[in-house]
Amino acid sequence: MLLLPDMNSTAPTKSDSAEPLPPIPAKRYFTIGEVSELCGVKPHVLRYWEQEFTQLRPMKRRGNRRYYQHHEVLLVRRIRDLLYEQGFTISGARNRLGEAAQNGRRRDASQVDLTVSAADLELQPAELDGSELQPSDQTIDLPALRADLLAALALLQTETGRQD
């Protein structure tokens, strides 16, 4: 007996996932249904990924309703990319996310300079002549800054989640 592929199958394939995902709206919280639509993943898959990926911890409210924040939606998209596009296993994707978080922590820690000179501490408000308040010639890349801040927030929340 010859078995033909099920043409009604909803399993993601590379051709299905080539369609771009919708933009993430500027909201604070997303329901599991909204995240499902934004990431192209069914709700039961999201619930399974919560068990497999410790970084994915949506807030739970009344009746165990899940509310995802923006950085968690980005994480779901990253997991989806690793599993569906790049062909990682769940274990491989978990390891890759862990490596990225460790590399990010090392990079961030090495770039932070927390030293304060004595001159900085001795500066009094009356000594300001206004030159410090002039706009600088540097431009700020807001999307890159936002991405860095979201990554830092995700790392902080991941570390806080491990201490629970």
Descriptive notes:
The protein is mainly α and 164 residues long. It contains 7 helices and 3 strands, in the order αβααββαααα. It has helices at 14-17, 32-39, 43-52, 70-85, 90-111, 118-122, 142-163; strands spanning 30-31, 59-60, 66-68. Strands 1-3-2 form a 3-stranded antiparallel beta sheet. Strand 2 and strand 3 (66-68) form a beta hairpin. The longest helix is centred in the middle third of the chain and has 22 residues, at 90-111. It is globular and about 45 Å long. The model is unreliable at 112-128 (pLDDT under 50).
Question: Can you describe this structure in just a few lines?
Answer:
By secondary structure, this protein is mainly α. The protein contains seven helices and three strands.
Q: How are the secondary structure elements laid out?
A:
Elements: H1 14-17, E1 30-31, H2 32-39, H3 43-52, E2 59-60, E3 66-68, H4 70-85, H5 90-111, H6 118-122, H7 142-163
Antiparallel strand pairs: 1-3, 2-3
Question: Structural class, from helix and strand content?
Answer: mainly alpha
Determine Rg (CA atoms, Å): 22 Å
- Give the strand line-up of the largest sheet: 1-3-2
In what range is the share of β-strand residues? under 5%
Please give the share of residues in helix: 40-55%
End-to-end separation: 55 Å
Average pLDDT level: 76
